[in-house]
Amino acid sequence: MAPTLRRVTAIVPLHLEVLAGRSELDRPVRWVAVSELEDPTPFLEGGELVLTTGMRLSGADAGPYVSRLVARGVAGLGFGVGLSHDVVPPEFAEAAESAGLPLVEVPRDTPFIAIGKAVSDLLAGEQYEEISRAFAAQGRLTRAALRRRGPVAVVDRLAREIGGWALLLDPSGAVRHAADATGRRASGAYGPGARGAGEDEATARHAGEHGAAPEGTQDGPVEVWARETARSLEPEIARLRSAPSPASLALATPHEHVVVQPLGRRGFFAVGSPRPFSPIAHTVVNAAGSLLTLALEQGREQRAAAAQVRAAVLRLLLAGETGAAARTLAALGMRLPAEPVTVLVCQTSDPDALTEALGGAAPACLTAPWEGLLVVAAPDAYAEEVVALAARYGRVGVGAPGVDLPSGHGSLGHGAEPAPAGEGADAAGGVLAGGGPRLDLAVGLDQARRALASAAPVARFTELAGQGLLSLLDPDAAASFAAAILAPLREYGSRADLVESLRAYLASNGHWDAAAQRLGVHRHTLRYRMKRVSELLGRNLDDPAVRAELWIALCV
After folding, report:
1. What does each of the 556 residues of the chain score in pLDDT, given as a tens digit?
2. Of the chain's two ends, which shows fewer C-beta atoms within 10 Å, N or C?
3. E strand or H helix at 176, and its extent?
4. Residue 11 carries which DSSP code?
C-alpha cells in the first residue's frame, strides 16, 4: 500500500502546508514528479504528487491546468514558492478546492528532491512491511498445512489472510471445503455426510468436530453460498482443465476480484476479495496453492496402494468371496456399498482424479481399476448422480440396476460375514430373499463393458436393445466399414445421389414404386440408378446378405 498524501504532508521537516482539498488527503502517493510544463499529463501515469514552481503558469492558467491533472488522476499538486511566485496564486487554490485536488504549498527552503526522497523512503518502508507481512502469512499457512486436516486448515487460514473467501474444489469442481473472513465454513467431501469408500470413520468424526454439518441435516446458507460460487466458476474451471499447460486465471467484477488456480491433478482452489489483489496478496495466494498441491499430492503412494487393494476386492467379489472382500476393506476402514448396486465401467485419462471425485459421493461407492478401466459399484439410489459425475472425466458404460453382491443379503461392512449357503438365495443362487431375480456382479460388469463401446459419453446397457444390432458394433470400426463400402457411390460423378437412392430402395424393401415415390423420381430412373449401384459396388442387390451390409453402412 502506497503512503497517503496525508502522511507525506505530516512530515515535519518538509514544512508543507495544505491549501486546498483537505478531504482528499488520504489518496495514495505512488511517486513524485517534478515538471514545469504547462501540460505535464502526457508524462504521468496517475497517482503522482506533481511538484512545480509555476515558472510558465499564471493565475489565468489555474483552471485548465488543474483540470488536466484531475483528469489524469494525480494524487495532488505541490506548488513551490519563493522563485517564480512569492505565494501560491489564489486562482490555483480556488480551482483545486473546486476540483477536489489537494494543493500543497512548498516553502523556498524545502527542495523538491527532499520530498522525492521522503516519498521514496515511505514507499520502501511500505514494501518492506508488505514483504514482512507476506512472510508472516506464509508462516501461518505453513503451520496450518502441518495440522491433521491440512488442506482444510490452509483454506480457513487463507480466507482470513486475504480478508475474503476461499474454496477448495475437487477435480470435477465440486466443493470440498469453503471458508471466508467472517468464519463461515462449508464442507463437502471432507464432511461426514460425504464420506467415500476410502475414508475412515475417525476422519469423518474429526470433520464433524470441526464444524461440518452432520449427515442428513439441511444445507445452511454457507453450503448454498459455496455451491453457487463453485457453479459460477464452472466455465473458468473447464478452461483450466483443458489448458495445455498448468495456468491460473483472474476475474474481476465491480464488486469482487477472484483468482482460480489448479492444484496439479488433484483439483482447484479459488479465492475472492472485495479489493484488488496486491502483488503481496498474490504471493500469499500462490504460497497457499503450493501448500495445497503438496498436501494433496503427498498421498499419491497411499492412493496407489488403496487402488490395488480395491482391485483385489473386486476380484474377490467376482470370485464369490464376499466375506473376504468385506474383511479386507474393513481392515482399511472401508466398507462395501449398500446393495443393490449399479455397475459402471469408465474409460478416462485420469482415473485417480475420477476416483477422488467419486470418493466424495454419498453414500459410499466401490471404485477399482480393472483391465485399464475404472469399475464403479454405486448404490442404485445414487447411480444417476455417480454417472453424471463420471461423465465429466470420460466415457461411461452403465450396466442394468439391481446387481447383488455374491452374498445375496445386502451390504457388508467392517468384517461382516457372507450369508451361509442357502440364505438369501434359493438353491439355484438366482433369487434374492425378497423373491426378485438377482443380477450377478459379473453379469453387471459385462453389461457395463458392452455399453462402454457405444458410450458418447454415456451408454446404458438397458437402452442397447432398443438400438438394435448397431449398438453392439465398435463405432470406429463401423464407421471405417461404412466409408469403405460406400466410397464408390460417393465418388460417382453423376448428379444423381446414388447413396440416398440406395437408402430409399432398401428402406422400401426393394419395392420400386414406393422407393421412387419417396425420392420423387420415375421408377425406371430408380431402376437405372440401382443398376449403376450394383455395377459400382460389384454386388448383387437381390442378395439379402448384401442388403444387410449396405443397410448397416447407411445407418452408421
Report:
1. 689 999 999 999 999 999 999 999 999 999 999 999 999 999 999 999 999 999 999 999 999 999 999 999 999 999 999 999 999 999 999 999 999 999 999 999 999 999 999 999 999 988 888 788 888 888 888 888 888 778 888 898 888 888 889 998 888 788 888 888 765 555 544 332 333 333 333 333 333 333 333 333 334 555 778 888 888 888 888 888 877 777 888 888 888 889 998 887 778 889 999 888 888 888 888 898 888 888 877 766 677 788 888 889 999 998 888 888 888 888 877 888 888 999 999 998 878 778 877 876 555 788 999 888 999 999 988 889 899 888 888 899 999 898 888 754 333 333 333 333 333 333 333 444 334 445 788 889 988 988 888 788 898 888 875 555 665 667 677 778 888 888 888 888 765 678 888 988 998 888 999 888 888 889 899 999 999 999 999 999 989 889 988 988 887 7
2. N
3. strand 175-180
4. -
Quick one: cell of 485? 463400402
DSSP string computed for 207-240: HHHTTPPPTTPPP-HHHHHHHHHHHHTHHHHHHH
Scanning the structure block, which residue is given the C-alpha cell 438394435? 468
- With a CB cutoff of 8 Å and minimum separation 6, the contacts of 249 are 236, 239, 240, 259, 260
